[in-house]
Amino acid sequence: MKPATRLYVHGTFADGSALPPGPPAWLEAVLRQPVVGIALFDREGRYLLANAAYCRLYGHDAADLLGSSFVRVLPPGAATAALERHRRFLEGRDEFDGEWHVRHRDGTPFTVLSASIRVPGPDGRPARLTFAVDAAVAGRHARHGETGCSTDHRLASAFDSVSAQVCVLDASARIVAVNRAWRDFAAAHGGRLDEVREGASYLLACAQAARSGATDGAEAARMARLLAEVLAGQRTQFELEYACEPAAGEPRWFAARISRIEGSEPPSVVVVHEDITARRHASEAHRREAALLADLAAALPGVMFRMVQQRDGRWRFLYLSRGVESLLGTTTEAVYSDHRAMWARVAPADRAALDASVRAALAAGGRWEHEYRIVTPAGVEHWIHAKAASQPGEGGTTLWSGFLHDITERRRVEAELRASEQTFRNLFQTVPQGVVYHALDGRITAANPAAERILGRSLAQLLDHTSGDPQWRALREDGTPLADTDHPAMVALRTGRAVDNVVMGVQRPDGRRVWLLVSAMPVRRDGALAEVFASFEDISERLELARELRRQACTDELTGVANRRRFMERLQAEHERLLRHPHLQCALLALDIDHFKQVNDTHGHAAGDAVLVEVARAMRLATRQQDLVARWGGEEFMILLPDTGRAEATALAQRLRRQVQSARIAHGAGVLGVTVSIGVGALSSADDALEHVLRRADRALYRAKSAGRNAVAADGEPA
To answer: Cα separation of 435 and 519, whole Å?
Structure first.
C-alpha cells in the first residue's frame, strides 16, 4: 500500500520527501500552525498511527496510543456508540464528521472538530483516517482570519494524504486538481507530470496510457465513453476495473470510480483510481482455493457439508459435496431444496438414536459425532460415520460444518474382529494347554484356566509374578537349576524370537514337581515388541515314562547297574572329552566273578543271581556318583572311572576285591562266598578306537585270572 498517511512535518513529508506544489496561503499556515491532528484507525478502532499535533491535542505520546482503541479519548458512556458508528462508517453506512466531546489525558473535557475519510489499511481492509482540531482554537483562528486551520484547508490536506489516486475534472474533462498519490503513480509508471497536473486533459492522459501499452486501448475507449455520459448527465457515476502493465515491474490492477459532484454546474467530476492488485490476487487465490476444495471434496470418499440452523430451528444446507450422490443415492439439488431428503435415507431402526444424538449436540453447543445406517434406493444398507462442529453464525443462527463417511467396510471388519476375538477367548479359556502372557518386564498379565490347573495356582497368585520367582524352583531336564534369564518367555522377550519346546520343571504349592514342555512367542504391535505369550503342557507322566524306558534300555534288569550299551555310550563320551582335554585322565576296571559256573551248577541259578546282585551292590558302594558300573555280560562287569589315573584305579580295584572276598551272600539256608578278578586299563587321548582300551583291560583281567584269581592286574604291569 502507498503511504496513505505521509504527514507534513516542518516542510517535508514524514518520510523525508519534498512537499508538492500547492497553494502557499493555506500550506504555509498549516506549517506555521500545525494544529491539525491526524490519526489512522483499523477496523477495530485501534490506533495505527498518530501525528505530533494529534498527540499534543490529547496529551498522549504516540507510543502510548498505538494499538489502543480511540475510545480512550472519549468520555465514559460514549464508547459503545462511537465504535458502532466507526464500523458503520467503514462499511459506507454512516459518516464520521462533526464536533465530538472528548477528554485530555489529564481528564479535562473539551470539544474537537473532525473529518474522516475511508482509506485502505496496511492489511488491505478499510481503515479510517481522521483530521481533528480543537474547536475552540479553530473558532479563535476563524475570528482572527487565520484561514490556514479552516475546515476547507484541513480537507485539502486530507485530499493530498489519501492513498488512492484522486483528481477533479471540469466539464471538459480538464484536470483541475490532483492529489500527491496521483502524481506519484504517474512518475513511478512512466507518465509525464505535465499530462496529469492541473490543466491537462484527462482523456488525453488515458489515450497516452493506451498508446504506451500500459493499459488496454479498448478499456481506455470505454473509460472515455462512460466519462462523457457522466459529464452529459446521462449517469451520475460508474466503476471500472482495468489492468496496468508498466514497462518495468509486475502488472497491477486498478479500480476507477468516477462520480459527478452533486450540484456542480457546470458539472465537475471526481475520479478515484485505487490499487486493487492485492485484492485481485486475493480473489484469484480464493478462486483457486475454492476450485481446489471442490476437487478435493469430489475426490474424498464421503460427503463434506455445511448447514445453518435458523433461530426458529429450521435447517438448511449451505454446501454439500457431490459425494452425496454416490453415498446416499440422491442428488445434491434434492438435499439443497429439502434437507429431509437425507433424513429419509436413515434406517428406521436408527432414527431415534440419531435424533437423540443431534439434540444432545445442540444442547451442548459443541461437537456432534454419531454412527448410523442408511438404506439406498436400491435397498443396500450402509453404515455412516457423521462428524460435525458448530460455530455461531449471523443473526443468532448456528453453522454446522462436518463430514459423512461410509464405514460399512470398517464395520464389517470390526464385526469379524469381534467374532475372532470371541473365538480366541473361547480357545484361551478351553484349550488343555496352559497359556500365560508376559509384559515387557516379564510380569505375568494373564493366564487361562489350564495354566491355573497345571501350575496349581489361581490367577490372582500368578498375576504380577515373573518366571524368575523363587516359588517356581525351576529346573532343566537334567535336574540343574534353570536361571530366570533362560526361561523361554524371557529369552523371547530379550531376543524378539520364538522359542520352541523347552523342557523345564516347576514346583507346585503342594510340593509336587511338574514337568512342562514350554514354547514362547513374541507379540508385536506396529512393528514393536509388545508382550510374549508362553504356552505349555504337562508332560510329567510322559517324561517319567520316557525316563523309565531309557533306564530300562540302559540298565541291567537283574542287578540294576548300567548295561553294556549304556557303558559304551559313556566310554565314548569320556574318550571325546579326553580328545578335547588331553591332560585329563580316565581309567576302567574289567571284573569277573571267579568260578561263577560252579555256583550255578552247585547251588542253582537263583544262587547265581544272588551273587550277581550282591557283587553289583558292592561295586556301587565302592564307587563315586560320577563313576559308572555296568554289567558287561554273564558274570563280567565294567567300571568306568572318570578323572582317575591308573594308580588310583588299581587301589580302588584292590579295595573292591577285598570287600567282595569278605562278603557273605545269604541264599536259602546257606551262605555263599565268592572272589573276583579285576583288570585295570587306562583310557588315553592317543586311542583312536575304544576297542584298544577294552582289549588292554581285558588282557589285564586275563593276567589276574592266570595269577590264580582273586587278584588285580593293571595293563602293562605284572600281576
So the answer is: 10
Class of domain 431-543: alpha beta
Locate all alpha helices (DSSP H) within 300-433, ordered by sequence: 323-328, 332-337, 340-343, 351-364, 408-430
The number of C-alpha atoms within 13 Å of 105 and in the hemisphere containing its C-beta is 11
Residues of the chain with CATH 3.30.70.270: 555-714
Cell representation of residue 502 = 523347552
Q: Are 477 and 504 in contact (CB under 8 A)?
A: yes
> What is residue 559's three-state secondary structure?
coil
Does residue 285 carry a pLDDT above 80?
Answer: no
Q: What does the pLDDT average to over 171-178? A: 84
Please state whether the peptide bond connecting residue 266 to the residue before it is cis, i.e. omega within 30 degrees of 0.
yes
Domain 8-161 grouped into CATH 3.40.190.10: no
Q: Average pLDDT in the 269-289 region?
A: 78
Mean pLDDT of 365-369: 85
In this structure, the strands spanning 712-714 and 676-683 are parallel
- 3-class state of residue 261 by DSSP: coil
Diameter of the chain by CA atoms? 169
- Residue 10, SS3 per DSSP: coil
pLDDT class for 314, splitting at 50, 70, 90? confident
**701-719 core/surface letters (b: 16 or more CB in 10 A; e: else):** bbbbbeeeebbbbbbeeeb
Q: What one-character DSSP code corresponds to residue 348?
A: G
Which strands make up the sheet holding 434-438, listed edge to edge?
A: 444-447, 434-438, 528-538, 513-525, 499-507, 475-476
**pTM for this entry:** 0.36
**From CA 164, how far away is CA 124, in angstroms rounded?**
12
Alpha-carbon distance 395 to 200, whole Å?
51
Assigned CATH topology for domain 165-281 = Beta-Lactamase (3.30.450)
pLDDT one-digit tens code per residue, 392-450:
888 788 888 888 888 888 888 888 777 767 766 766 777 788 898 999 998 999 998 98
The stretch 627-656 carries a mean pLDDT of 95
Q: How far apart are CA 639 and CA 620, in angstroms?
A: 9
CA triple 148-153-158, angle to 5 deg: 135
Pairing assessment for the beta strands 381-392 and 444-447 based on DSSP bridges: unpaired
Identify the helix (H) or strand (E) that includes residue 117: strand 109-120
Per-residue DSSP letters for 672-711? E---EEEEEEEE-TT-SSHHHHHHHHHHHHHHHHHTTSS-
Q: Which of 67-81, 211-225, 347-361, 570-584 has the lowest mean pLDDT?
A: 211-225
Angle at 433 between CA 429 and CA 435, to 5 degrees: 65
- pLDDT by residue (tens digit) across 543-580? 888 777 777 778 888 999 999 999 999 999 999 999 99
- CATH 3.30.450.20 domain residues, the chain: 8-161, 165-281, 302-411, 431-543
The reply to whether CATH 3.20.20.30 applies to domain 302-411 is: no
The C-alpha atoms of residue 53 and residue 55 are separated, in whole angstroms, by 5
Strands 434-438 and 398-406, bridge-based pairing? unpaired
555-714: CATH class: alpha beta
3-state secondary structure of 536: strand
φ, ψ at 367 (rounded to 5°): -110, 155
What span, in angstroms and rounded, lies between the C-alpha atoms of 308 and 306?
A: 7
